[in-house]
Amino acid sequence: MAVKELNHINIRTAKMEKTKDFFVDVVGLKIGYRPDFPSDGYWLYCGNVPIVHLSLSDPKGDPRTIHSGRGNGLDHIGLSACDLNGFEKTLMQNGVTYRKCLAGSGKLVQIFFLDPNGVQVELAFEAKAEGVTRENFVAVDAEGLGV
Fold it and tell me: For a Cys-Cys bond, which of 40, 95, 130, 144 suits 84, CB 3.0-4.6 Å?
């Protein structure tokens, strides 16, 4: 018995179209096949894998998650990415506040930001592949974002 990989993250939201547009336009995922479930939603793909599922929630229903940032619960969704400069440009064009830092002894560049529901998203870039070194790295700080 063994876990092989993370299959998907499901975000329940009353802001369906705004959340879908965010993950498509800002993060770069693609809308793809979703089985005919009784509730509305989207499956958003990275290549051939539906890594983010969106499900319509009832805003008057019981909470389904613990808010991130304080105490226990989901802290963030982490995605591997490439084209650091392109992502930063897209985030700025869409008015998304983000934090950028170096991690892993300078081997990783991390960008943290919030989706329209307040779910924190991390994009992780290989510093060497992006041409980033400790000497040329420029941090971007945003209060409350990151781990």
Answer: 130
